Amino acid sequence: MSVFREELLLRSKDVDMFRRLRTSELFRLLQEASIRHTEQLGMGRDKTLDKGILWVLLMQRAEIVRMPEYDERIVLKSWPGMTMHLLFPRYYSLETASGEPLLKASALWSLVDQKTRKVVFPEKYGVAIEGVVTGEEIAMPGAVAKRDCGCERDFTVPYSFVDLNGHMNNTRYFDLAEDSVGAAAAGRLLRGISVEYQNEALLGEKLHLHWSGGEGSVYLCGETERPVFRMQLDYN
Q1: For the chain, what is the HEC assignment?
Q2: pTM of the prediction?
Q3: Which own/partner contact pairs does 20-23 have at CB distance under 8 Å and 24+ positions apart?
Q4: Strand partners, 78
Q5: Contact 52, 113 (CB under 8 A)
Q6: Does the domain at residues 4-125 carry the CATH identifier 1.10.10.10?
Q7: Which CATH class name applies to 151-235?
Q8: What are the tens digits of pLDDT across the range 1-14?
Q9: pLDDT in tens, 83-142
Q10: pLDDT, tens digit (0-9, with 9 covering 90-100), for 40-76
Q11: How many CA atoms lie within 13 A of 235 on its CB side?
């Protein structure tokens, strides 16, 4: 069974003012685990990046029991689900060194042409990943329902937010969300995350951000000339 496993010690750079793992850092860890495992499975950059093909995230979901904290040793696991034509499901879990469950997550990945930005057929480039079932999977992420919003701001994508794919990295949307909405700064505990990436935001583009929040749930969306993302953050 092909399951990626990695032990990590959380450093000061990984956590927020409450000494809890930053949301953006959590998703960076998941993203990096996906890349390393894909490389281990023989589907590294020689099959994709070096041929002008990019891995992109379409949707993500997480169910959080507890965010790990500063100086805590954790175990990150990741494994591929069953490929669905153009979609590559992937699952994740975090637990303490002693086996206490911390969170579970799922994601949908796809491949796009670097120049045209259109989805490509993986078999054309020899990309094939065998899925596994561990019994620890949560539901796949789905579309985030649109809501009416009462707050808004504009944000210009800076150089530091752009990754090797040439667009705003998915992890940075969480920084943007938490900088805009006061729940994280108030110390509220994040319990669930759903995000849908609809289009990319490029360097220098102005992103129009809208959000609304109730007692336990915050909704955000962003757009340029086209929809870019929708996100739901559920708090205690």
Answers
A1: CCCEEEEEECCHHHECCCCEECHHHHHHHHHHHHHHHHHHCCCCCCCCHHHCEEEEEEEEEEEECCCCECCCEEEEEEEECCCECCEEEEEEEEEECCCCEEEEEEEEEEEEECCCCCECCHHHHCCCCCCCCCCCCCCCCCCCCCCCCCEEEEEECCHHHECCCCCECCCHHHHHHHHHCCCCCCCCCEEEEEEEECCCCCCCCEEEEEEEECCCEEEEEEECCCEEEEEEEEEC
A2: 0.95
A3: 20/67, 20/68, 20/69, 20/70, 21/67, 21/68, 21/69, 22/174, 22/175, 23/174, 23/175, 23/177, 23/178, 23/184, 23/190, 23/193
A4: 4, 92
A5: yes
A6: no
A7: alpha beta
A8: 689 999 999 999 99
A9: 999 999 999 999 999 999 999 999 999 999 999 999 999 999 999 999 999 999 999 999
A10: 999 999 999 999 999 999 999 999 999 999 999 999 9
A11: 19
What amino acid is encoded at 169 in this protein? N
The domain limits of the chain are 4-125, 151-235
**Angle at 150 (CA atoms; ends 144, 155), nearest 5 degrees:** 75
- Amino acid letter at 107? A
Residue with tokens 């596994």: 132
Q: pLDDT tens-digit profile of 221-231? A: 999 999 999 99
Cα-Cα-Cα-Cα dihedral of 187, 188, 190, 195, to 10°? -90
